Amino acid sequence: MANLQPIPTSRFYVEFDGITEKMIKSVTEVNFTGKLAGHDKPVSSTKGGKTLWQTTSSGFEENPNFTVEVFLREGDMQMYNWFKAVMPKSEGGDGNWSGSRKAGAIVGYNSADEEVLRWSITNAWPKSYKVSDFGADKSDLCVETYEIVCEQINRTK
Questions:
Q1: Cβ 31 vs Cβ 64: under 8 Å
Q2: How far apart are CA 121 and CA 105, in angstroms?
Q3: What Rg value do the Cα atoms of the chain yield, rounded?
Q4: pLDDT per residue as tens, the chain (157 positions)
């Protein structure tokens, strides 16, 4: 019988091709919703009065997405440069969306530092950027927040 051990939510990491060794504060709102077709009305009725329904998966309602908060470190611009690379030139970016999408992973660890969860990410790009508020009365560490969109997220472990 398997040993049922809860997995702590505080032991995780997220990485993308060429973007590693980040100090991640949080990964939130990992979500994707399948789009269904044909589920809203019956297809037919059979002998004995059984109603048949058909549900067909036809991709995602919208692309899977999640939010990553990264602690800012002096001189580290990797995540921001990735964001700038995918943004259109008309918005001040480099306009290289198709060439700047990256593979990645969200990984969860148990209390013994063993990988126990993994979501593989396909063709991801940052959709939005936000930096934490600055204030003379603040004691928080500076954080960049990125909304990440991707073509696919698969739980592989």
A1: yes
A2: 5
A3: 21
A4: 567 788 889 999 999 999 989 999 999 988 877 665 665 666 667 778 777 656 555 555 568 889 999 999 999 999 999 999 999 999 999 999 999 999 999 999 998 999 999 999 999 999 999 999 999 999 999 999 999 999 889 999 9
DSSP assignment of 38-79 equals S-SS--EE-TTSPEE---EEEEESS--EEEEEEE--TT--HH
Q: What stretches of the chain show up as alpha helix (H) in DSSP?
A: 78-86, 97-100
Query: Using CA atoms, how far apart are residues 121 and 87, in angstroms rounded to an integer?
Result: 20
Residue 25: its H or E element? strand 24-31
Query: Tokens standing for 77?
Result: 């611009």
**Contact between 104 and 82 (Cβ < 8 Å):** no
CB atoms within 10 A of CB 60: 14
